[in-house]
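One such given next:

>
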Amino acid sequence: MSVILTPGQAGDDPQLLPLLDQVSVKRDGPGRPRQRPDRVLADKAYSSPSTVVRCASVASRWSARRKGPRGPSAAPW
């Protein structure tokens, strides 16, 4: 797990890659921790095409919910 603390008005997206660079995943056996996670899941704030392209090199599998319609008109009924 990794944490970066920023001011409240700062955007989350610019901090994503530095945050992922700090992650280390412990191996089952001996050896250095892995720096590349198997999977990264993110909310739709990180679904912009530029973010997806940048993060595809960091994680084996990258998944973020796509941005869709908002508000009451987005209801399925």
The longest strand covers residues 39-42. The beta strands are 39-42, 61-64. The first helix runs from residue 16 to 21.
